[in-house]
Design goal:
- By secondary structure, the protein is mainly α.
- It has one domain.
- The protein is 76% helix and 3% strand.
- It has a two-stranded antiparallel sheet.
- The radius of gyration is 31 Å and the shape is elongated.
């Protein structure tokens, strides 16, 4: 009997383990006056603005640190390498090769190819090491996540302060546009979608927003290093080509002597 009782007890426990969990209890909606909703809307706007300012402070601090490291690494790594005798000799060889291998129709080919080479070295000696400390491409996503963490907390406070169930407040923020870049509709997102998405980067509207931010940066953005490197390459190429002319003349004189 004891063994049978034990088996029955085990079966009861196992049955309890596989029993479907109880359905979530639905919190009944409460009557909210229009004036209360207006106050809630104002508080949501204030909370969003406050979260935005705090996210800006974070992102500016992170970018300032990144720029400082880029300047330091430029002084420590790139400029000594670029200014060294052997680098200048190697660049002379490369410019000569670029000039020989480029067709006459290709204008400024040497400058463009030299700029690409210098950018590759700048990435290797400056940008890549700096990104190990602060990744500029990740700052935007981290700032957005910081904003959402603050806003979620504030929404909870608003819900508690006015005695409005969170489910009912969520219904309210479904009507508030957070990203409006459409058409198409996928480029739009409500505040509810932004706050409750599991992965912000997977939200099409957020991806469109990030793309717009990068394009708006233009020549002032993080990705503008190649544009900034072009004048450096142009001056270097012109100087090297100017130095190559006397060398060529001297070689010709020496050969004819």
């Amino acid at each position: 009997m004891k063994l049978r009782s034990l088996i029955v007890a085990v079966l009861v426990v196992l049955a309890g383990c596989v029993t479907a969990p109880p359905a979530p209890v639905e919190v009944p909606q409460i009557m909210v006056s229009p004036s209360t909703w207006q106050q809630v809307d104002r508080e949501i706007v204030d909370a969003s603005q406050s979260a935005t300012e705090q996210a800006k402070i974070y992102s500016r601090g992170a970018m300032d640190y990144w720029r400082t490291r880029v300047y330091q690494l430029t002084e420590e790594n790139f400029i000594p390498w670029f200014s060294s005798y052997w680098t200048q000799e190697w660049l002379s060889v490369k410019v000569s090769w670029y000039a020989i291998s480029s067709s006459k129709e290709e204008q400024n080919a040497s400058e463009k190819r030299l700029a690409a080479y210098l950018l590759e070295k700048y990435q290797e000696k400056v940008l890549a090491p700096a990104a190990l400390e602060v990744d500029p491409d990740a700052i935007l996503t981290l700032a957005a996540a910081f904003y959402l963490d603050i806003l979620k907390e504030e929404l909870q406070k608003i819900s508690q302060r006015h005695g409005i169930p969170m489910a009912q407040l969520n219904g309210r923020i479904r009507k508030i546009p957070a990203i409006a870049l459409g058409p198409p509709p996928a480029r739009d997102a409500s505040l509810y979608q932004v706050v409750h998405t599991e992965q912000l980067t997977a939200l099409p509207a957020y991806a469109a927003l990030v793309d717009k931010v990068h394009k708006a940066g233009g020549d002032k953005g993080v990705g503008s290093t190649d544009t900034a490197m072009a004048p450096v390459a142009k001056r270097a190429s012109q100087r090297i080509e100017a130095e190559m002319a006397p060398r060529g003349a001297a070689s010709a004189v020496a050969a004819g002597a």
